[in-house]
From TrEMBL:
Keywords: Membrane, Transmembrane, Transmembrane helix
Origin superkingdom: Bacteria
Pfam family, one: DUF624
Annotated TM spans: 21-48, 77-97, 109-130, 150-168, 175-197
Organism for this UniProt entry: Dorea longicatena
UniProt protein name: DUF624 domain-containing protein
Amino acid sequence: MSRFFNPDNPIMEFIAKIFDLILLNLIFIFSCVPIITIGASTSALSYVTLKMVRGEDPYIWQNFWKSFRQNFKQGTLIWIFSILVFIFLGMDFYIINSQNTTLFAVIRMLLWCVCLVALSVFLYVFPIISHFVCSTTQALKNAVFMTFGHLPYTLVMLVIAGLILYLCACSVKTFALVVVISGICGFSVVAFIYSILFDRIFKKYEPESPDNIE
């Protein structure tokens, strides 16, 4: 029995990680309540989950708050920019959907491609600003570069996001299930899975002496 409660026991480590993810999820949700803080909260979520993936500093609240404060301005600017981009794309869809010509059908397909690229860039950019010290413009450029430079990872992330959206739109029951899971640990678990991918990507760009990494 004493072996079971040993902190180094794989089962206990797994249980501890689950509790950490639940705690992180709750902190993330509460920090997103003002809506305008979603960008900074997302970058902080990525910062903490990447540390969890790498087995580093386990202090959830301290690390979350540290990243939230450091990336508040940058994360908020990118969040507002992302909202404007998707509002613009939504207006384009509204206009195009009112037309039934072959030309507009082609434009609609191209617009879907643009949406996927935009989504991919915003999936990358918040982890980038949480992990690397760079300007907002450079962070967006790096996000675009990584989107296409690591296409297999990008496709995996899009599939995960697409599956979640599909479950939300599939039926009322699956939507409710997604909402319940998201309230418990959904956001942090997805961020943790993404951070496994980001860990492999970011290591390619980290200097041997990480002086420019937070």
